[in-house]
Batch of 2 targets.
Target 1
Amino acid sequence: MSSLAARMGDLARERGHLAAAGINPFGVCMDEVTTATEAVIGGRPTILVGTNNYLGLSFAPRAIEAAVEATRRSGTGTTGSRVANGTYAIHQRLERRIADLYERPEALVFSTGYMANLAVLSTVAKPGDTILLDADSHSCIYDGCRLSGATMVRFRHNDVEDLEKRIRRLPKDRTGDLVIVVEGIYSMLGDRAPLAEIVEVKKRHGATLIVDEAHSLGVFGAKGRGLSEEAGVLDEVDFLVATFSKSVGTIGGFCVSNEAGLDLLRYTSRPYVFTASLPPPVVAAAIESIDMMEKGTHLRARLWGNVEHLHRGLTGLGLEILAAESPILAVRMPSEQALLACWMGLLEQGIYVNLALPPATPQGVYLLRCSVCAEHTREQLERVIHAFSEVTGRG
Amino acid sequence: MTLETLYEVIARVKPPEKPLTAETRFVDDLGLDSLTVMELVAEVEDTFDINVPINLLPEIHTVGELAATIDRLRSEQHE
Ligand SMILES: Cc1ncc(COP(=O)(O)O)c(C=O)c1O
């Protein structure tokens, strides 16, 4: 009786909106992607500034060679779950590599970061527990919390006082455990979690802390282990989750933990058990890229140099960028119309950025979301700044 | 009492076209979208000094149902 479109309510309305303006920002097709920073879109050579490919490793020759070699040797896919025919020696090698990187006894690899969050959250929390999650958490964190059956309480984005307040309000006769979930860098606004303070709260209340380092892996810390490393709190993070789909330049997710018994997820966690394992070329590429990431001090130096350059250029035009010192530069637009016009204008000038609008962003927040790559050249960034000045009529 | 305060909170978040009653439905009558719902919940939490777990939201359709939930949460969280 209710059509799919009716059930999708909000989304259908939003899309109708955009379609009326002749825009389908969520249907962009890359005719060809030629490097970590370049593509052809609609026949036009385009600079990519919206990829999450922070270190540019998706085209690293070492990773490509390893992927080709692994495909030749072991085929294009495993055609099975990790608990059946889908665990190859190379999967275990990748898990060992990650465990060593984090100096943990064990690491678990999942088929995506989404699956990793579903698996970890739904296993760590159970009905009767309370999960306190940042209101701006990624959808897969919300989904993982729902799957756990625990009580879900949101706290205001990056607001440690609000988190404390919500813990104080919990029923006095509460018996279950407390779990706090935050991200390293938030994917839309690009801002960082106040991890050191959150760790203090966690310790004070005996809570379990889960940190999703999806966008901060590779970007922060001497070894690129994420914001937890940069903030010096790796040992206080009970479960660290991340993805290979951003800095690592391929696909997959992982979790490391201080807790004994992480291994149990291999038997109890549905998102681990009931999906096929990563194909050999992906696993081989991830091993190489994680190695390059760990030793990637020069990549991080280039990335941060580029961030500074683009940040200075865009703020020099009088544009508002939401968070400083982040590889995600979220440029705020005054209205939906301005956002759509500028986004289209940039695309016509051969610049691809992400378009972010509610409900992916808070109400009234319209963003041209740029993600910077270590492989961007100064010349490319100058072209990006120039295009921004043209489409926004500034500078 | 709760209901009166709740009417004020709702009016702050989204001024209603018709007077609010306990039977007013959030989606069908007030046309709240998912973001406005979250904003309303945050306002309710601050006004009544309670946590409203988001697992409860799918079961709350009317203003009266929200008021009853608020009363229950207040007694649980402030005994
Ligand atoms: C915070 C966060 N967690 C998890 C994910 C999911 O990662 P994956 O692409 O590996 O499923 C994303 C990516 O969109 C993300 O932004």
Target 2
Amino acid sequence: MTMIKVVIKSLFNRKATTFLTILSIALSVSLLLGIERVRSGARKSFESTVSGVDLIAGARSGPVNLLLYSVFRIGDATNNVSYQSYERFSVHEKVAWTIPISLGDSHRGFRVVGTNGNYFKFYRFAGDKKLSFSQGKAFEGLFDVVIGSQIAKSLGYSLGEKITLSHGSGEVSFQEHADKPFSIVGILDSTGTPVDKSVHISLEAMHALHVDWKDGAPPRPGEEVSQSHLLNMDIKPAAITAFFIKLKSKIAIFNVQREINDFREEALLAILPGVTLRNLWETIGLAENALFAVSIMVFFVTLIGMVISLLATMNERRREMAILRSVGAKKSFIFSVLIVESCVLTLSGMVAGLLVLYFGLTVSRPVLESEMGMTLGLFAPTFNDVIYLCAILVGSVIVSVVPAWRAYRNSLADGLMVKS
Amino acid sequence: MNPILEVSRLSFSWPSSTSAVLDIDSFSVAQGEKVFLHGPSGSGKSTLLNLIGGVLTPQRGEITFNGMNLNEMSSEARDLVRGDQMGFIFQMFNLLPYLNAVENITLPCEFSKRKAMRVLEQASSLGDEARRLLSALRLDPHILEEKSVTQLSVGQQQRVATARALIGRPEMVIADEPTSALDSNIRDRFLRLLFDECNRNGTSLVFVSHDLDLGKNFDRVVSLEEINRSFTADTNE
Ligand SMILES: Nc1ncnc2c1ncn2[C@@H]1O[C@H](COP(=O)(O)OP(=O)(O)OP(=O)(O)O)[C@@H](O)[C@H]1O
Ligand SMILES: [Mg+2]
């Protein structure tokens, strides 16, 4: 009781240094916990780019590669999956539904995804969120297109506008499908996933764009098939790039995976997206570790700052310690005063740091969520946070042994009378 | 009268020096006695007070306070004796700047249950006793409570420190040059007030000063030069 009273009044007497010390602890605590939130938020939103999918299948290549082009629409597939193989598995007795993905074209740098109605019906992200339309509806006609929110925003598109697609995925393509314009029938809500940057057309449209192409080369003059002619044709897609699979029962995951991997007619690969996502995150997670290391260092600098500020006042406080000794304080009391003092500083810094953290989260949450699809939890401190806070407190007690020992030694040397 | 303090065959040297600062064959203070201790600067007066207060321990010899041999006690037990049964006043800057006058005066009661209990035997609260002591020392408690102790004059500060040394009726008050920062007028009044309070409770007083004039008011005047066999005063003073 006496101790707390002495410590608090003494700290209050040194308002400026106390305030600055608490402020620096608060900032480093909020930085540490904030980085932790961003870390777990980024990881969560990364891992929930696609959810509710049991398997992803594509032509045989590396699992990460398959994940990258099918989910993140980064890079290209080395091979296609024939439509027959896809149909074979889409009607498989253990399969609940499939979403086909066909890549290859682009629109002003945004990837074009050929798919079917299942995409809008079954695609899930961030746990159990469904795709929804901010305007319009799913494609129906052959030359209908549904665009992601970010495309609509950055290119300023609205419903009914006509766009043309280009062959290949480059920003600048010389091979425009200029003769076959699409009209925008739907704009999706923001998801914070690659869906926002995708142009969605039907598999049939994807095929139709290329019916007159031969061996990857555009049609020779005079051999083009016109858009009006295509509308009357019966188009059946020949190949897709990958497909998402949802099984009726999770128990069958490994069976079906093996069945796809052992498929005789075509070299296919099936992956568990959750596992591959996690592996991928671990490889790109180096940045996250660097961030964490920086915040740990910031924290150490803060602790050192606190010790320095305590040591700086040590000489002025020799008299204070001598007075305390003269009224009956034990040597251990003098030692403990400094320890308790740094605990009080650290605890106040933590409380202030949590306030800063929650204030920062409240302010930045809507922006991060809409711009980056990152949901930062505005929840009470997690178990992890509590561990960090305890570590901070323990750390501050450990480092405050330095000024405490100094005060103790001084007080022994001074006895009851301080010279000067 | 029984001695409250007895120092015998005491020898003390600082760890940093080879020769002893103090080598005292015998020095004692009777209960209620007021002893004036003088000696040149550097002769070891403050060192002796630290030994009596149990903050330092002699290499040889015994210090018996109120029947207890301080040397045989643990340092914690000595801290308790000091807190319970002694009161200290120093030359200057006696007060904790972050406590007000009353809080400064009642501070010893936070460390000593005995002092707190002895106060509460006679007063209704620690604060009341602090205010009583302040008025006995001719200070207006109401004015003091509004001011920070750092805003008080040196004379006022010394009286607050005296009240702190006196609270809880310790067996002995030990003062190390408490008047050296005061002018002679205030000094004489201060001394009279201190004596009055000591007399009220039969408190012994060991009072250190350079100022030999003050000695005449005391029961006994002791020169450290005379009792200390290894006398080493600073030669340049
Ligand atoms: N903490 C210390 N460590 C080592 N030597 C000390 C220490 N304090 C005092 N001394 C030495 O002990 C001797 C006595 O010092 P002390 O302070 O007791 O003298 P004093 O009689 O109180 O002098 P003054 O009248 O100036 O206060 C001096 O020679 C001093 O240098
Ligand atoms: Mg001295």
